[in-house]
Structure formats: structure tokens, C-alpha cells
């Protein structure tokens, strides 16, 4: 029989055991004491405009981070050196895992494009080489880190987890830290979306679970979390990390012996990961990045988005000022019946005739246009074929996209080749301008290292082989949402529910991490029956989807798939909204900083986001008053020059224009009113 004392001990063991299980990765326990740095033998300094790293190697074969700071914030998050976790164990295939002993070999610092530092370590038994590459590119943003491991022996070796991000962080004055994480909203927006957890130190009493901090997020092709986390100290400065992979995790915990305000962070590993590395074969760990910012979670995002715009998205989006395009997905307009997954030609051409005069720039033919072995066109419902459909869109000045699905195993070369050939046919035979992926036949990519590596290699090869190749990323809506996919896709179908509320929720969450030019609005309904009403309703719907990359998901204005035709006033309102987006909003989506100045959309409060481009002195606030909240709202802006004067004007003239100082707009804010619900407004910001 247990005594009270023995029961408490048993409970403590169970509690700590469960915490340790959740607060560790496969080979690196997060709660273990902080490892000590040995004798430094070489050191290097690399920096972007706002992130500085001092790295070094020790006589004991360690890779250490001696400084991680933002120059303006002037705080070193790793004043006590952070020892990066090199691969801990490996096994000659069939044998037992052995602890590895690494030795520092050499380094190279290439300054031809920023600063690219390559540090090499070797292990004798088994014969391995580990290469750690840190790249600080010109401009604002993080430092990218890539790790590769090469088997230099003549026999296969089984290796285990190798993080890409490994940090021991300590905030200013050991104050309270918070960890911010963001749901993918894959499928439908998450109930919370944006998670903020207070980081607390280890418990003094093992029974005091509330004082122990442990948080782990995972991402995979089925959704869950964006592989991105921000560690924030009072909204004044912080560190952010991310992984460029669709199957990985980021874990953080308070390590044993650390004080409050400290946290250990690991990222890039897989659960129970092992890989058989053949003789002279190389494994590339999922790339990651780390940045330091002055300010809050929005400031971290703005630093990251500058970097993503220049180095983390397809070149066409960055170079062509006419991106993102205004798209109409034809699912709701061309079905044989409303909601049908079988589009028909006879409804397609009238749709193009309707939407081209409104200024739409792209049309996407969605699921079901093929017959038999995809991508063979359905010659019954599409007698003229897909090439003719593309030609007609091109004649009307619009780009043409085609859906393509598959369930071939991306881990294997032959299925990859087969899928690549099918995708290539969309461009070569049908003259498509973009390929839209989705999972109606099966998984676009599997949740494994070989599958994701294979898929990325296939997309990279297609981009090189096919002139003008573009990928629109959708797998059940927003599930493949990571920095590796976003590096390769022109845009992502942001979630798989289409109401104005859900569209804004998904944008709110994902825009903390990704560039808005790649976040597609996709407003509408699967049966095509959703129908905004009146000029105010059309503006509300269009603005809900056009905070990033706009996509209409509705029946045609002519009502060809069973919906009521649009009035001339409604057509005029949409045409004007499209023109306004192209002229004034799209430049801000591309180049401005983004701030979440109102709460996450919930239909209980006003919501909206702010753009502001300090170089141009221009910005806008998207404002939405849904059903429920009152007619008055105070909005405090961010990112302005406190000493400058600004003029606020209202697109729909709902309020009189007003001039205020940046200091007042960021402090007291401005007050506005909107009558009726649901209703929206665009508030223009112009520096005098």
C-alpha cells in the first residue's frame, strides 16, 4: 500500500517523465543541463542588416554560437555560449549506435554574396564529415543555416537526428519571455490560430508542473503548425527561427539549472528519425534560419518577410510588379451542376467573357477536367480541348492555370519522373501558365524525409526545364505550408473554407510568418452558391480576399451555374475594386511592412490589418466591421515616424479625412465609425 509520501514521489516521477518525453527530440533532450563550451580555436562574425552572429569552433570539436543579436537592440541572446548539437550518434548498418567524436577541420568565408560561412567537422569512427553552412545575405532578415552529413566510409551507416536550429537563449535581464507559434489553418482555420505561451523556468518543486515550460510544434503535409516560432521579450526585442521543410518540428523547453527568461530551442528534427546513408552518400538536413529583431512579433515578421521577398520565393513574384495576379478559380462557375467536380466547356467561355472586362488577370480550371488517364482532356465536356481554353484566356489578356493531381510516391525516382511528365504536359500540350496541385487522388507528398526531398527536387527540376513554370500550392487547402514549399510556389491556397470570416482568419495567422503576396484569398463556396449582395457586399467580399493574393471562387457574374446574375452596380463595384487593388493595394502588399493592429477575426470585434511602406510614406488599413460589434472603433497604428505628420483618408468616404502626428497615431490612435453590418473600409495613410 502506498503512503502519502511515496505516492507523491511516484507522481513526481510520472510528471517529470511525461514532461521529459514531450520536451525532447529523438537524440537531444531539451531539459538536460546546458552544455559548456570548450576552448575556442577559431571564430567568425557574419551579419545581415539586423541579425549578427559570432560563431566559433573549439578544441573539443564543438560548434558554438557566441553572439546572437540585433545591432539596434544591443542584447546578446547567447552571452553564455550556445553549443550547437552536432550529430550525436550513428551506427554501421546492422550494428549498435555509437557516440560520435567530432573534430574541427577547417572553414571558408565567401563574401561574394553577403557572407557565406562553411565550417567542416570530421569523425573517424565511423568516417563522417559534417558541413555547417551559415549564410547572411544583404539586407534585413535572418541568417540561413544548412547542415549536410557525408558518409566517407565504404560501408553504409545509419545516422539519427540532426537539428538545423539549436540554441540556448537568455532574454534581457532574465525577464519574461513568450513563445509565439502559428497554425497552418490547413483545411479550415484553427480555433486559436496564434498561440502565445509564457516561458517559465524549471520547477523548484517537482510537483509544480505549472512552472515548467515545454512546447513543441510539428508540421507535416497534413497541416498542423507552420515551422516558425518567435521568442519575444516584452515586445521590445526577440529571436525568431524557422525550418524550410514540410515534415519537421520545433521544440522549446526550460533546461535544467537555467533561470527564468532562458529557453533551449531545437528545430529541424523528425520524430524517431533514422536514415541509412550509403557509402559516400550525403544527407542534407532540412535548412533553417535564425534572426534577431528589435520590437515585437510583427517586427520579427517584417524582418523575415523582407528576406523572404528577396531570397525565399520564386523569382517571378519578386521581379514582376504585377504579382500577385487577381485570379478567378472556375470551380464554382463551370461545374456541370452546382458543386460538381466536373467542369464543362460550355460554361467556361461565357465566364471568360464576363470576367476579363472586370480586370481579372488569371483563370484557374480546377478539378475534374480530364477523362481516363489524367491529364488527357475530357473530349465530351471539353470538345475543343484545354489548349483552346488556354488560347481564349490568352486572347482576353488573362493567364491560364490547370489543376493536376497524383498520388505517386515522391520518395522513388520512377514515380517522380512519371509525375513530372504529367505536370509537364499541362505546359507543353495545353499551354498552361501555372499548375495547381491538390490531393483529390491522394497525398501530394508523403510525410517522410525521402518523399519531401524528392518532391522538392522534382519541382526544382520542372522550374529549370519548363519556361515560365509556376506552381500554385494547394493540398486540401493550406496544409503544405512551410518555407520550403513557399520558396517554390507562386502562391498557396490558404485554407479550404471560403467564407469572408475564414479567409480573413487564415490570412491573419499565416501573415505573421509568410509574405502576403503568396497568401491566396480564395473567397466563395464549393457549390458556387455563395453570393455577395450589393456594392457594399461586393467590396466587403473582395477586400476580405485581397489583403494578399486575391482569388474569387464564385459562380460567374452571368449566373451560369445557377446563381443570380450580378447587377450592373455590382459589376462596377468589383471592377473598381480590382483596379484599385492593382493601382494602390498591390504595391503595398509587395513592399510594405504588415501589422496586426486589430484582433483576430471572430465576428465579435472589428478586425483588419495595416500596411505601411516607410520608404514611400504610404500605407493602408483594411478595416472590417462584421455583424455584432458597435459602430465606433479606435485603431492604433504601428511603424510610423513619430515626428512626421500623416493624413488619413477613407476610400468610401465613411469618415472625414484627418491629419495627425505619427506619435499620436501610434499612441492614442484614431477613432472611426462605420454604419451598417457587415461593412468594410480602406483607410489610406499618407505622410505629409
Q: Mind explaining what this structure looks like?
A:
By secondary structure, the chain is α+β, with helices and mostly antiparallel strands. The protein has 3 domains: 12-311, alpha-galactosidase from lactobacil brevis (Beta-galactosidase, Chain A, domain 5, Distorted Sandwich); 325-409 and 480-589, Aldolase class I (TIM Barrel, Alpha-Beta Barrel); 595-687, Golgi alpha-mannosidase II (Immunoglobulin-like, Sandwich), CATH 2.60.40.1180. The protein has 13 helices and 39 strands. The strands form 6 sheets. Strands 7, 8, 9, 10, 12, 13, 14, 15, 16, 17, 18, 19, 21 and 22 form a 14-stranded antiparallel β-sheet that branches. Strands 29-28-27-26-25-24-23-31-30 form a 9-stranded parallel β-sheet. Strand 26, helix 8 (449-465) and strand 27 (471-473) form a beta-alpha-beta unit. Helix 5 runs parallel beside helix 6, helix 10 runs parallel beside helix 11 (534-545) and helix 11 (534-545) runs parallel beside helix 12. Mean pLDDT is 91; it is low at 1-27.
Amino acid at each position: 500500500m502506498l503512503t502519502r509520501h511515496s505516492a507523491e514521489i511516484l507522481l513526481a516521477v510520472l510528471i517529470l517523465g511525461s514532461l521529459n518525453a514531450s520536451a525532447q527530440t529523438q537524440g537531444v533532450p531539451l531539459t538536460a543541463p546546458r552544455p559548456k563550451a570548450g576552448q575556442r580555436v577559431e571564430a567568425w562574425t557574419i551579419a545581415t542588416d539586423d541579425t549578427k552572429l559570432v560563431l566559433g569552433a573549439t578544441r573539443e570539436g564543438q560548434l558554438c554560437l557566441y553572439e546572437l543579436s540585433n545591432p539596434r537592440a544591443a542584447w546578446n541572446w547567447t552571452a553564455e555560449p550556445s553549443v550547437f548539437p552536432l550529430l550525436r550518434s550513428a551506427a554501421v548498418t546492422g550494428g549498435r549506435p555509437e557516440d560520435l567524436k567530432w573534430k574541427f577541420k577547417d572553414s571558408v568565408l565567401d563574401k561574394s554574396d553577403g557572407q557565406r560561412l562553411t565550417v567542416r567537422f570530421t569523425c573517424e569512427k565511423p568516417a563522417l564529415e559534417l558541413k555547417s553552412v551559415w549564410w547572411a545575405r544583404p539586407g534585413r532578415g535572418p541568417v540561413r543555416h544548412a547542415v549536410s552529413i557525408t558518409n566517407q566510409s565504404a560501408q553504409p551507416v545509419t545516422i539519427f537526428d540532426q537539428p538545423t536550429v539549436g540554441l540556448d537563449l537568455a532574454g534581457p535581464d532574465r525577464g519574461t519571455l513568450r513563445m509565439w507559434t502559428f497554425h497552418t489553418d490547413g483545411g479550415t482555420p484553427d480555433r486559436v490560430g496564434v498561440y502565445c505561451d509564457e516561458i517559465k523556468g524549471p520547477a523548484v518543486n517537482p510537483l509544480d508542473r505549472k512552472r515548467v515550460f515545454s512546447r513543441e510544434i510539428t508540421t507535416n503535409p497534413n497541416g498542423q503548425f507552420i515551422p516558425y516560432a518567435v521568442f519575444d521579450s516584452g515586445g521590445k526585442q526577440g529571436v525568431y527561427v524557422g525550418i524550410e521543410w514540410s515534415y519537421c518540428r520545433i521544440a522549446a523547453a526550460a533546461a535544467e539549472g537555467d533561470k527564468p527568461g532562458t529557453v533551449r530551442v531545437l528545430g529541424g528534427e523528425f520524430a524517431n528519425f533514422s536514415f541509412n546513408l550509403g557509402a559516400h552518400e550525403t544527407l542534407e538536413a532540412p535548412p533553417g534560419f535564425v534572426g534577431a529583431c528589435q520590437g515585437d512579433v510583427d517586427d520579427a515578421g517584417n524582418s523575415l518577410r523582407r528576406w523572404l521577398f528577396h531570397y525565399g520565393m520564386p523569382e517571378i513574384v519578386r521581379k514582376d510588379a504585377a504579382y500577385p495576379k487577381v485570379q478567378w478559380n472556375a470551380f464554382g462557375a463551370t461545374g456541370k451542376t452546382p458543386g460538381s467536380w466536373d467542369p464543362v466547356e460550355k460554361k467556361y467561355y461565357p465566364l471568360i467573357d464576363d470576367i476579363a472586362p472586370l480586370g481579372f488577370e488569371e483563370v484557374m480550371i480546377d478539378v475534374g477536367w480530364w477523362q481516363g488517364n489524367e491529364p488527357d482532356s475530357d473530349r465530351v465536356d471539353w470538345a475543343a480541348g484545354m489548349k483552346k481554353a488556354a488560347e481564349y484566356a490568352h486572347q482576353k489578356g488573362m493567364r491560364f492555370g490547370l489543376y493536376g493531381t497524383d498520388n505517386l510516391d515522391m520518395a522513388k525516382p520512377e514515380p517522380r519522373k512519371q509525375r513530372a511528365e504529367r505536370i509537364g504536359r499541362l505546359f507543353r500540350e495545353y499551354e498552361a501558365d501555372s499548375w495547381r496541385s491538390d490531393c483529390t487522388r491522394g497525398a501530394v507528398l508523403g510525410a517522410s524525409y525521402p518523399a519531401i526531398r524528392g518532391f522538392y527536387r522534382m519541382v526544382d527540376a520542372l522550374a529549370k526545364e519548363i519556361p515560365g513554370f509556376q506552381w500554385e500550392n494547394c493540398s486540401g487547402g493550406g496544409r503544405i505550408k512551410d518555407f520550403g514549399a513557399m520558396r517554390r510556389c507562386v502562391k498557396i491556397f490558404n485554407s479550404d473554407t471560403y467564407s469572408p470570416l475564414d479567409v480573413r482568419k487564415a490570412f491573419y495567422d499565416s501573415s505573421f510568418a509568410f509574405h502576403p503576396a503568396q497568401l491566396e484569398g480564395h473567397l466563395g463556396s464549393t457549390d458556387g452558391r455563395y453570393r455577395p449582395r450589393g456594392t457594399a457586399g461586393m467590396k466587403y467580399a473582395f477586400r476580405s480576399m485581397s489583403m494578399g493574393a486575391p482569388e474569387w471562387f464564385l459562380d460567374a457574374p452571368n449566373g451560369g451555374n445557377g446563381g443570380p446574375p450580378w447587377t450592373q452596380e455590382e459589376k462596377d463595384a468589383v471592377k473598381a475594386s480590382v483596379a484599385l487593388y492593382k493601382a494602390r493595394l498591390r504595391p503595398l502588399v509587395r513592399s510594405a511592412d504588415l501589422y496586426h493592429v486589430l484582433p483576430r477575426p471572430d465576428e465579435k470585434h472589428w478586425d483588419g490589418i495595416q500596411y505601411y511602406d516607410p520608404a514611400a510614406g504610404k500605407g493602408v488599413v483594411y478595416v472590417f466591421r462584421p455583424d455584432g460589434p458597435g459602430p465606433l472603433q479606435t485603431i492604433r497604428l504601428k511603424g510610423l515616424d513619430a515626428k512626421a505628420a500623416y493624413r488619413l483618408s477613407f476610400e468610401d468616404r465613411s469618415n472625414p479625412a484627418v491629419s495627425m502626428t505619427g506619435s499620436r497615431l501610434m499612441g492614442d490612435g484614431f477613432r472611426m465609425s462605420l454604419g451598417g453590418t457587415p461593412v468594410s473600409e480602406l483607410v489610406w495613410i499618407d505622410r505629409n
